[in-house]
Design a protein that fits this description.
alpha/beta; UDP N-Acetylglucosamine Acyltransferase, domain 1; Udp N-acetylglucosamine O-acyltransferase, Domain 2; 28 strands
Length: 269
């Protein structure tokens, strides 16, 4: 049974799944689809061509699928926002739709977006991602599975944050952060391997050790990056995690948030 509060405004064309709850002062637009068992607690605005999965918890004053803030956005164009299953979206979070006609902003499954987080137009956010309080992702940011974005961190447009990477609180990210690393600073630089994050995501001690060795090869030796990439590939030619790191280097458009010299001291031994 769907429970819609008498003070909510839900368009008759909206598609609402079984056992959903829509609390007071929520508004749901005509082109919205909401999966089963999702709860909009109160004062939630869902508009545009927006799809929300099942078993999501959406807290007060959230806005989903609102038009992109990009000044290139054309009025009356159709773009999309898609949000997966089992997501927790806390107070005042905003997720905007894509800018260009037919484009999409997407959030995966099992994510937690804490209060005041923002996901800008055309972002692609993976599964099991955490946005801490007031973490911000500008347009066209890509964030891999199991990434953790710290409170008050800001990610520049078109940056990539890799799988199981962590961006420390209050960091300013203006270049790509490789999978499995921790980036911190203003601007942010990769510091160490995200050992705890990898453990929580289910990686073995052996996998973590190989990733750490690869990080040292890439950044802690006096090698040109192309030489370091070749050596890492030669050392671990069949390791999926190393391949993921090297592919991220090859695909980078904004460059890498390379470690500072001081990082060397915490990666030896």
């Amino acid at each position: 049974m769907v429970i819609i509060d008498k003070l909510a405004v839900v368009h008759e064309k909206a598609q609402i799944g079984a056992n959903c709850q829509i609390g007071p002062f929520c508004t749901v637009g005509a082109n919205v689809q909401i999966g089963d068992n999702t709860n909009l607690k109160s004062h939630v605005v869902v508009d545009g061509h927006t799809t929300i999965g099942s078993d999501c918890e959406i807290f007060p004053f959230v806005t989903l699928g609102i038009d992109s803030q990009d000044l290139k956005h054309e009025p009356n164009s159709i773009s999309y926002a898609t949000i997966g299953d089992r997501n927790i979206i806390r107070e005042f979070v905003s997720i905007h739709n894509g800018t260009e006609e037919g484009s999409t902003t997407s959030i995966g499954d099992d994510c937690a977006l804490l209060a005041h987080a923002h996901v800008g137009h055309n972002c692609i956010v993976g599964n099991h991602v955490i946005f801490s309080h007031n973490a911000l992702a500008a347009g066209h940011v890509i964030i891999g599975d199991h990434a953790n974005i710290g409170a008050l961190a800001a990610i520049h447009q078109f940056c990539h944050i890799g799988t199981a990477a962590m961006v420390a609180a209050m960091s300013r990210v203006i270049q790509d952060v490789l999978p499995f690393t921790i980036a911190e600073g203003f601007p942010a630089h990769m510091r160490v391997i995200n050992k705890i994050g990898m453990q929580r995501a289910g990686y073995s001690d052996e996998e973590i050790a190989i990733v750490r060795k690869t990080f040292r090869t890439l950044f802690m030796r006096e090698l040109r990056l192309d030489e370091a990439v070749a050596e890492a590939l030669s050392s671990f030619p069949n390791d999926n995690n190393v391949t993921l790191m090297l592919e991220a280097i090859e695909a980078s458009q904004r460059g890498l948030a390379r470690p500072e010299n001081a990082t060397y001291e915490i990666n030896v031994g």
